[in-house]
Amino acid sequence: MCGRYFLFELQAFVDAATKLAPPPVFEPSYNIAPSHHIPIFPNTEDRAGILAKWGLVPFWSKEPKVKYPTINARSETAHEKPSYRESLKKRRCLVPASGFYEWMKVDSGKQPYAIQMESREPFAFAGLWEVWHRGQEDELVTCTIMTTQPNPLVSRIHNRMPVVIHPDNYDEWLDPAEKTNDQLKHLFASFPAEEMMAYPVTRDVGSPANNHPGLIEPIQL
């Protein structure tokens, strides 16, 4: 699963990715966790950046929360799951990131690793978004991050990784038209390992209360 990531170059992402409207104000974060409100670019006509709560609440839910984790949607089965299948068809989004964290099991517990592009440029996860309503005024925008099989780099650390959408495929992923899983599944391949890097970081990242640039600095094991 992908349960923690960081984003400190949102404007650089917008500048590099054409056809995206400027996002709302978002302070750089080195420890984004579930339930945080995160910037996404939904597949609306204007592709205007918005903030969404991380943890998807299906439109049909009776309450603005669910009893099971919805921070990640497995790309292999999202089209079958009631929580995600309508969003996959109609409500896709980009979730910009500078990198993400995964934990490796070691003798002393779990060691976090930061994973970024080799170029250190920001990139985008494949996301799904949803709007939950209660009555006419109560509205909650939520999202989930899709995951896939890990590439050889990430597989040494964890058994899943986020789906990373290549910039050449942003237009296809953000097409407002309804899409089938067969039309989209080629986008769910794991991102090439040779274009990414991973390194150990402080275990302080385990607490969402910690949020500073030092969290992404490499450490010696």
Can you describe this structure in just a few lines?
With 221 residues, this protein is mainly beta.
Task: Round the Cα radius of gyration to an integer and report it.
Answer: 17 Å
| CATH homologous superfamily grouping | SOS response associated peptidase-like
Distance separating the two termini: 24 Å
Main sheet characteristics: 5 strands, antiparallel
So what's the CATH class? Alpha Beta
Strand order of the largest sheet: 2-1-7-8-12
Total count of strands: 12
Mean pLDDT: 95
Q: Return the structural class.
A: mainly beta
User: Given the C-alpha coordinates, what overall shape results?
Assistant: globular
Question: What proportion of the residues form beta strands (DSSP E)?
Answer: 25-35%
CATH topology: hypothetical protein yedk fold
Total helical elements? 5
Q: How many domain modules?
A: 1
Please write out the topology.
Layout: E1 5-7, H1 10-16, E2 29-32, E3 37-42, E4 50-54, E5 72-74, H2 85-90, E6 92-97, E7 99-106, E8 109-117, E9 123-134, E10 138-148, H3 152-155, E11 161-162, H4 170-173, H5 181-184, E12 196-200
Parallel strand pairs: 4-10, 5-10
Antiparallel strand pairs: 1-2, 1-7, 3-4, 3-6, 6-9, 7-8, 8-12, 9-10, 10-11
Overview features:
mainly beta, 221 residues, 33% strand, hypothetical protein yedk fold, 5 helices, single chain
Describe the protein's architecture and organization.
The structure is a single chain. The chain is mainly beta. The protein has one domain (5-216): hypothetical protein yedk fold (Alpha-Beta Complex), CATH 3.90.1680.10. The protein has 5 helices and 12 strands. The chain has helices at residues 10-16, 85-90, 152-155, 170-173, 181-184; strands at 5-7, 29-32, 37-42, 50-54, 72-74, 92-97, 99-106, 109-117, 123-134, 138-148, 161-162, 196-200. Strands 2-1-7-8-12 form a 5-stranded antiparallel beta sheet, with no helix packed on it. Strands 3-4-10-9-6 form a 5-stranded mixed barrel. A hairpin with a 2-residue loop joins strand 7 (99-106) and strand 8. The protein is globular. The two termini are 24 Å apart. The model has no long low-confidence stretch (mean pLDDT 95).
